[in-house]
Amino acid sequence: MTAPKKRPESIDLILKTLPHKPGVYQFLDDKDVIIYVGKAKDLKKRVSSYFNKDRQTWGKVYWMVKRIADIRTLVVDTEQDAFLLENNLIKKYQPRYNVQLKDDKTFPWICIRNEPFPRVFSTRNVVKDGSQYFGPYASGRLMNTLLELIRQLYPLRNCNLNLSPENIRKKKFRLCLEYHIGNCKGPCEGLQTKEAYQEMITEIRDIIKGNLQGVAEQLKNLMHAYAGRMEFEKAHLVKEKLMLLEKYQSKSTVVNPQIANVDVFTIVSDPQAAYVNFLKVVNGAIIQAHTVEIKKILDEPDDELFSKAIFNLRERFQSNARELIVPFIPADRIENLVYTCPQRGDKKKLLELSERNVQYYRTDKEKQKELVDPERHSKRILEQAKKDLRLPDPPVRIECFDNSNLQGSQAVSAMVVFTNGRPDKKEYRHYNIRTVTGPDDFASMEEVILRRYKRMLDENKALPQLIVIDGGKGQLSAAVKSLESLDLRGKISIIGIAKRLEEIYFPGDPLPLYLDKKSETLRLIQQLRDEAHRFGITHHRKKRQKETIRSVLTDIPGIGYETAQKLLWKFKSVKNISKAGFDDLAGVAGKAKAKIISDYFRNQPS
Predict the structure, then answer these.
(1) 431 has which bridge partners?
(2) How crowded is the C-beta side of 153, counted as CA atoms within 13 Å?
(3) Sign of CA pseudo-dihedral 33, 39, 42, 45
(4) CA 217, CA 86: separation in Å to the nearest integer?
(5) Alpha carbon 89 to chain centroid distance?
(6) How many whole angstroms separate alpha carbon 295 and alpha carbon 272?
(7) Distance between CA 188 and CA 387 in Å, rounded?
(8) 453 and 489 Cβ atoms separated by less than 8 Å
(9) Of the candidates 453, 378, 373, which has an alpha carbon nearest to the alpha carbon of residue 418?
(10) For a disulfide at 370, which of 377, 528, 530, 562, Cβ 3.0-4.6 Å?
């Protein structure tokens, strides 16, 4: 038996970028044929498990994995949605490695029959007779729980009599046992009007659609009523139904029988490319999903690319759907098609599902590109930062400063360095403020900037392309003052970022720059600022701790910081140290220092 070929590098990239989301995965061979469809609660964990050497055997899984040339995924909201979508795709494509594992059963639906005094029941056969169908239901237990709940709350008929107005008027039917035991209100003999019955059907329809608040309140009231009458067994049964109802998901975003035959398209783009997702919905079920990447050559607008993608994808998949669900109406439309931009309801949910999947696809592509060529990724971000911040050169080296103090005491400053858009931790520095007394952030910033860049000039080191100051106009002006004194104004670009609204300030410009909240440039600056804050706070916390120890224990002649720290680790507080016996102190600090400490506390006034 031959050993497996080394899997393609593209598979490794896909595995590294899969999301931890529920969804459906498809394995394709080198001829682009789907050979397996599966569902997952966590796509990354499930798909990666197939390529775990410890789990591979010489059985069917081994040979299937050997043939995998590509992996496609579709992200959904819940595991139940994934279960239903898996079933639809298996029925559509009949993949080779699914045939022996999956039967072709049809999931059950709830039917509200199109007839006078409609019946409500479960069925596996959807008939186009004007009746309403809800589902399908992946869990028969949930569906039956819902039907039982409906029967308990609403006295519906369950007979199959033809309750036409004429038959009722002619008294063709007699009341049955269901009426006498309270399960029906006797519409067969005209004891219940059609209007009153229809009100119940309207409420039932709302419950099935997921409007459960009203029935949940009824159940709670019924539970409390049983409990008030000491009928605890009945109250517990109602409580169990209430808990099941709360877990129940009445509709899947994946399917809806009212949506017969539509195509769903969404688009997202960046300066280099556009990404278009396509979902094919037939008889209320998604049967195809595909995402394409379109490279931008002449900075084409999204509207133009979207129109071309819709045409090409419909032609490629031979779609004959007459309705397209889209986020916006493109300028170039295909004749005789209906374009819908839904604002709510099931079609809106389909559009949102498509949008999520195209976003995941774009994110995965970017992650794969970064893994293959990290320098290219960094270069793109730096070029964008140069453009957004109006810099003369890409900011290959960025230095960011942040001040920390506690009510003016133990003032420190932190500097972090990013090289090629990534933290360069060996270049991080802490500064203890020397010349400033009291809480003066401006003066502290002025001191640190002066010390930092005077030393760089003295040591003839390369200067950064960008300085980021954590603060607004005041801190920025103080930093610029130091650069001017060193004759570096204009030789290094410098900006300030204010925390409140993430404003970017430039020297001499009173109006801030507001970058897009999703821009990579703002994200880079925020990462710098947050890292500088973290680094500064860590140092400040350690310094405060040292000062606390020094102020109490290191006042004792002959006891240094190291010994004081060991004692505090052991005894937890100075009070415990003062009460400790000689042997206990000697075990930590040695006999000589133990005697010094014991004598010191013995001579202290009580």
Answers:
(1) 413
(2) 26
(3) negative
(4) 35
(5) 25
(6) 6
(7) 78
(8) no
(9) 378
(10) 377
Residue 407 backbone phi and psi in degrees, to 5: 50, 40
3-state secondary structure string across 326-341: CCCCCCCCCCCCEEEC
Q: Which DSSP letter does residue 80 get?
A: H
Interatomic CA distance for residues 244 and 238, integer angstroms: 10
Q: How far apart are the first and last CA of the chain?
A: 87
Tell me the residue type at 449. I
Amino acid in the structure at residue 327: P
Which segments of 391-439 are extended strands (E)?
397-406, 409-419, 422-423, 429-432
Length of the chain (residues): 606
Spatial separation of the C-alpha atoms in residues 175 and 188, rounded to whole Å = 7
The residue among 75, 66, 70 whose CA lies nearest residue 23 is 75
What angle do the packed helices 213-228 and 232-247 form, to 10 degrees? Answer: 160
Read off φ and ψ for residue 379, nearest 5 degrees: -60, -40
Q: In the block, which residue shows the tokens 């789990």? A: 55
Neighbours of 399 (CB within 10 A): 28
The alpha carbon of 162 is separated from its chain's Cα centroid by a whole number of angstroms, namely 52
Collapsing DSSP states into helix, strand and coil, what is residue 577?
helix
Cα 395 off chain centre by: 31
Q: Enumerate domains of the chain plus CATH numbers.
A: 9-93 (3.40.1440.10), 109-212 (no CATH), 261-370 (3.30.420), 384-544 (3.30.420.340), 553-602 (1.10.150.20)
Whether a cis peptide bond, with omega within 30° of 0, leads into 136 is yes
Which parts of the chain register pLDDT below 70? 1-8, 53-60, 80, 99-107, 135-142, 209-214, 244-257, 283-284, 297-299, 370-374, 405-410, 438, 539-552, 554, 605-606
| Amino acid present at 514 | Y
Give which of 330, 349, 329 is closest to 256, Cα–Cα: 349
Calpha distance 139→145 (Å, rounded): 10
What pLDDT was estimated at residue 117?
Answer: 92
Q: Are strands 261-269 and 323-325 parallel, antiparallel or unpaired?
A: parallel
* Four-residue CA torsion sign, 132, 135, 140, 141: negative
Q: Would you say the C-alpha torsion 358, 361, 367, 369 has a positive or negative sign?
A: negative
Put residue 434 in one of left, alpha, beta given phi > 0 → left and psi -120 to 50 → alpha: alpha
pLDDT one-digit tens code per residue, 179-234: 888 889 899 988 989 999 998 898 888 777 666 666 778 778 889 999 999 989 88
List the strands of the sheet with 285-295, edge to edge.
285-295, 273-282, 261-269, 323-325, 338-340
Q: In this structure, what token pair is assigned to residue 497?
A: 């970022």
Residue 244 CB-half CA count within 13 A: 17
DSSP 558: T
List CB contacts of 426: < 8 A, sequence separation 6 or more. Answer: none
Residue 365: phi and psi, rounded to 5, are: -60, -45
Phi, psi of 120 (to 5 degrees): -125, 120
| Per-position b or e across 514-542, b if 16+ CB within 10 A of its CB | ebeeeebbbebbebbbebbbebbeebbee
Q: Which residues have CB under 8 Å from 446's CB, separation 6+?
A: 478, 479, 481, 482
pLDDT value for 102 = 39
Within 10 angstroms of residue 444's Cβ, the number of other Cβ atoms is: 25
d(CA 118, CA 415): 74
